[in-house]
Amino acid sequence: MTATAVLTARALLLDMDGTLVNSDASVERVWRRWAERHGLDGDEVMKVVHGRQGHASMALLLPNRSMAQNHADNARMLAEETSDTEGVVEIPGARDFLASLDGLPHALVTSADVGLSTARMAAAGLALPEVRVTAESVGASKPDPEGFLKGAAELGVDPADCVVFEDSGAGIAAGRAAGMRVVGIGPRAGFHAPDVAVRDLTQVRVERETDGTLLLHVTGAVGA
Questions:
Q1: What confidence tens digit (pLDDT) does each residue in 163-219 have?
Q2: What are the distances in angstroms from CA 191 to CA 22, 83, 177?
Q3: What's the DSSP call for residue 159?
């Protein structure tokens, strides 16, 4: 069932990969090479890696390996991903959506580090939000809610008044654990029970009320 939903918020917290930026081609190339090096099934690896920091994905996929090895391997992977931006493009509607948020409380909350998030946003032709929570900012990866809670704190907004935009199961779980409502973006999101799910950001319009409340008009929303 599809419908038009209107959500209210005081701030918006935006994931990057799969939400603002389509980086699937790069992620697939890098992680499938990693899977081959470790004798793992590439399809199974791809079911795990979306939304998480690399070392957290590695801990799930190679449970007997030390976290020190995972962190060292993750540093190499981040360098590989940062240099591989071929095919990285905006999610439809992302540029206009970000432009509509100018002057409104919002933040980027991503499992990428500063280098990777800067490279991918630039490759997609998107401006970075002023407030950013990256991998360096947190001690725990999504699905832990730390990143979203930090984003809310930096904006000075109660978590219950924030709406998260996410595409992955780990990210949606993190938003819910933070006590926030979630707009799911893209084909992966609908499998993880966001409050509403849309194909892309062309289906979302933001309006600001005189009291500062943000109205999110979500057209064609599934689950509204």
A1: 999 999 999 999 999 999 999 999 989 899 999 999 999 999 999 999 999 999 999
A2: 18, 31, 17
A3: G
Instruction: Compute and round to an integer the Cα radius of gyration of the chain.
Output: 17
Active site members: 15, 17
Cα gap 166→17, rounded to integer Å: 9
Tokens (6 digits) for 3:
């419908």
Distances (CA, A) of 127 to 32, 98, 117, 130, 208: 29, 8, 11, 9, 21
DSSP designation for 50? T
- The structure's pTM equals 0.89
Distances in whole angstroms, Cα of residue 201 to Cα of each of 129, 172, 176, 178: 16, 16, 20, 23
Query: What's 128's DSSP letter?
Result: P
Q: Answer whether 145's CB lies under 8 Å from 162's CB.
A: no
